[in-house]
Amino acid sequence: MPPPNQWDRIARTPEFSALLAAKRRFIVPSTIFFLVYYISLPVLVGFAPDMMKRRVWGPLNIAYLFALSQFFMTWILAAWYLRMASRFDGMAARILQNAEKP
Amino acid sequence: MSPAVLMFVGFIALTLLITAWAARRSSGASAYFAAGRQIKGWQNGIAVAGDYMSAASFLGIAGMIAYQGYDGFMYSVGFLVAYLTVLLIVAEPLRNTGKYTMADVLAYRLDPRPVRAMASLSTLLVSTFYMIAQMVGAGTLVSLLLKDSGVGYSAAVTIVGILMVAYVVFGGMLATTWVQIVKAVLLMSGTLLLSILVLAHFHFSLAEFFDAVAHVKVGNRVVDFLEPGLRYKPPYGAIDLISLGLALVLGTAGLPHVLVRFYTVPDAKTARISVVWAMGIIGVFYLMTTFLGFGAATILGRDFIEAHGKINMSAPLLAQRLGGDIFFAFISAIAFATILAVVAGLTISASTSFAHDFYSNVIHHGKYRTPGQEVRVARITAFVVGAVSIAIAIVLGPTFNVAFLVGLAFAVAASANLPAIVFALFWRRFNTSGAVCGLAAGLISSMVLIAISPSIMGVDGPTVAAAARHLIQAKPLFPLENPGILSIPLGFLGAWLGTLARGKRTTEDRFTELLVRSTTGLGAEQAGSH
Questions:
Q1: Contacts of B479 (CB under 8 A, 6+ apart)
Q2: Cβ of B81 and A74 within 8 Å?
Q3: How far B174 CA lies from chain A's nearest CA (Å)?
């Protein structure tokens, strides 16, 4: 365990600020994106049912295809995060390495 | 013995073997509560999926799609998207900063006693609501599935209760995890087989399948089951749907039995990998509910299901029609395994929270006592939780409408737990008063709004059977079945106002520490050795 003032020292390093900023740059917009994308489904189904019931591909209507697209949106965003996170891991590892130096 | 009974007994024997194996391996608190933090990423991913895919999803959603088509499928979507909240916001910081429970993260920089007391109360309530829903479902289902063997509702509830207590008391988190894994593998194979049989029925042509779904005979009308609006109707349907969506997408990241799973892995990176594994499995599962639900709608039809065991039997009945009695027995055994695994997960999260949060830290101020005491308290709690759930489920009886209890669990998780977790992790000014007010506002508003909703209040005509009657015979005061749209903002508002009400800034120093820990993993609980 590092000594108590170690936390502040790490928090003040530019590497830590960079990691924090990089994480926020990814997580905040993607969270807003998926929440909006997801909530548009019940909003559109609830308030624009006629548009959503329009058939676009055989018997499949917009409502069903949009619901189906949510699965792929979720998987793609998760895979993208997994890629970004390995970059965050590298940044965190360097911060910890530096922190161990006297 | 019928094939169904044989398979039930086989599953029970296997899980008891796992429990015996786990009991010999695990000793010490970290082993008992967190499986020594040595579960691998993919294993925990399967276990998270196993914990999450309850009988409500397997039987309930299949039935809902079979009866109400597209509107039932909306649940499937929400259950998966919810894991983005878990992945992006909650899982890794939780693993980096906590020990056994959600409250660890809150107590980190806040006054531990009031915060843990509230968080523990919320955990116990969410677990109990969810548990009672599962137990009543289990009793109904098992007595239906085993109706030839003479096992009645009360006996079925008691068997399920005793088994879940046995897993948790003797095998701890390690046994619970492996029970989840076995169940998830069984559930996925059964669902996959059933989906293939449905497709085979339509000559492996998706065009033929969806064409049938768009022309389902209900009575003497032809209904397009791909069209929304069969369940949620004006004037409040749209708002109710949005409210439900919010509770699903924000509530999952506050479900205690899902959160405790992230403490069983060695580090945050493994926690992340396990969420992604879970998302793969859960996504495929909910995609397949399309075939189960729409398959039951087109191949069996509502009238047939209604005459042969009602909505929750849609999937087993479909299995019987397409695969014969042996396959029916297999699917029934899977449904049983599903319930058992979920209630075991709920029991361990409830007893961990009581022992670790309430007993050790609220009553005994977190001081170290004799080793093993925390585990002993957790075992006793598991026993009490089991006994109480059995009793409540038997008193409520098989006809009690439990659907709203699952909704209530998600609403409390989204309105009480999530605001507290998010603010504790990301808001420097957040303080004890904010956490207590937020948890209280979320808890009380969800419970009150459900109590005055159409789930509880309604005026029934004299012809309505006693069991189906509303608990309160009056016009509902709140028009929505799902309180999330109001209770979630109230939870966040409570946490915010509670924080502003107290200007204490002492917690801000430890925020830096928490931020460094949650971001880098420095000082996180290490995996122990067996």
A1: B235, B236, B453, B454
A2: yes
A3: 27
- In whole angstroms, what is the distance from residue A18 CA to residue A13 CA? 9
Q: Which of B530, B312, B528, B526 is nearest to B402 (CA)?
A: B312
Q: What is the pTM of this model?
A: 0.90
B209 interfacial to chain A (CB closer than 8 Å): no
Parts of chain A with a pLDDT under 50: none
How does pLDDT run across A1-14, given as a tens digit for each residue? Answer: 556 678 888 888 88
- Using the beta-carbon criterion (under 8 Å), do B83 and A19 form an inter-chain contact? no
DSSP string computed for B316-383:
HHHHHHHHHHHHHHHHHHHHHHHHHHHHHHHHHHHHHIIIIIIIIIIISTT---STTHHHHHHHHHHH
Chain A residue nearest residue B508, CA to CA: A8
Residues of B whose CB is below 8 A from A59: 210-211, 213-214, 224, 226
Tell which A residues from 47 to 86 touch B, by Cβ distance under 8 Å: 47, 49, 52-53, 58-61, 63-64, 67, 70-71, 73-75, 77-79, 81-82, 85
To the nearest whole angstrom, how far is the Cα of B425 from the nearest Cα of chain A? Answer: 13
- H or E stretch covering B511: helix B507-520
**Mind listing the pLDDT tens digit for each residue in B221-253?**
888 888 887 787 777 788 888 999 999 999 999
Give residue for tokens 């006996």.
B155
Tokens of A30: 């993607």
Q: Which residue of A lies nearest to B280 if distances are taken between CA atoms? A: A75
B512·A7 Cβ contact <8 A: yes
Distances (CA, A) of B8 to B15, B22, B336, B338, B418: 11, 21, 7, 11, 37
**Is this complex's ipTM strictly greater than 0.95?**
no
Could you tell me which residues are beta bridge partners of residue A61?
A: A55
pLDDT in tens, B434-476: 999 999 999 999 999 988 888 888 887 777 766 667 777 888 8
Q: Do the chains contact at B210 and A60, CB–CB below 8 Å?
A: yes
All residue ranges of chain B with pLDDT < 70 are 1, 26, 148-149, 368-371, 401, 465-468, 503-509, 528-530
The residues pairing with B221 across neighbouring beta strands, listed in sequence order, are B218
Nearest Cβ partner for A67 among B74, B213, B517? B74
Question: Do B250 and A35 touch, CB atoms closer than 8 A?
Answer: no
Measure CB to CB from residue A30 to each of B83, B88, B513 and give the nearest one.
B88
Cis peptide before B256 (omega within 30 of 0): no
Q: Tell me which of A5, A12, A38, A95 to substitute to probe the interface with B (most B C-beta atoms closer than 10 Å).
A: A38
Which amino acid is located at A75 in the chain?
W
